[in-house]
Amino acid sequence: MSTFSQTWRSLAAQEVVEDRAARAALGVVAFALATALSAQAAVWLPWTPVPVTLQPLFVILAGALLGARLGAVAIGLYVVVGALGAPVFANGGGGLLWLLGPTGGYLLAAPVAAYVSGAVSGREGRGLRLVAGLTLGIAAMYTGGVAQLLAVSGMSLGAAVAAGVTPFVVGDLTKIGLAFFTVRSVRWASQNRS
User: Which of 44, 63, 64, 61 is nearest to 52 (CA)?
Assistant: First the structure.
């Protein structure tokens, strides 16, 4: 490896904030903000009331990188801010009524999904444990989403799964892959600080 790339890797791996509590608070706020921004990249599909967004990626990353508790706090903060009316949900939506609609189940399940992702992945989770944590995090969001679709739309279970899970599987598998490599890279960088 060249000296130039070693220098850049060394700089990228340095801790910017050394105080542990400040770093945790910064991580919580950063993931809440990143999740809000990711909701603005929403694509509405004509056959489902649920948009495709980048939110699941940041939900599972929050859990895997911040840990179960802080990940859930970060995503919970995002949901609370949106429920209070800030336009942080898909395409600038916000307010308590948004949580009672067809997408509310995914949002309400998101803090649980972050917690599950972090708890199963663990601090040193590698390989299958990390994949399992990320996958179960997405599954937790699907569970909340389908439950809400059943409650508000009167769909059958099969129709709710077809509208609330099936259109998103390929994209969410891609998000799991991106999250896996992101977590592995971040953990590698923090282990190899110089």
Answer: 44
Global pTM?
A: 0.88
Distance of alpha carbon 158 from alpha carbon 28, whole angstroms:
36
pLDDT, tens digit, 9 for 90 and up, residues 88-114: 999 899 999 999 999 999 999 999 999
For domain 3-191, the CATH architecture is: Orthogonal Bundle (1.10)
- Flag whether pLDDT at 76 surpasses 60: yes
Torsion of CA 122, 127, 133, 135, to 10 degrees: 170
Write the CA distances from 104 to 93, 113, 152, 168, 192, integer angstroms. 11, 14, 10, 16, 41
DSSP 92: G
Q: Could you state, in order of their start, the residue ranges of all structural domains in the chain? A: 3-191
Residue type, 164: G
- Between CA 141 and CA 146 the distance in angstroms is 9
| 8 A C-beta contact, residue 38 and residue 55 | yes
In angstroms, the CA 40 to CA 58 distance is 13
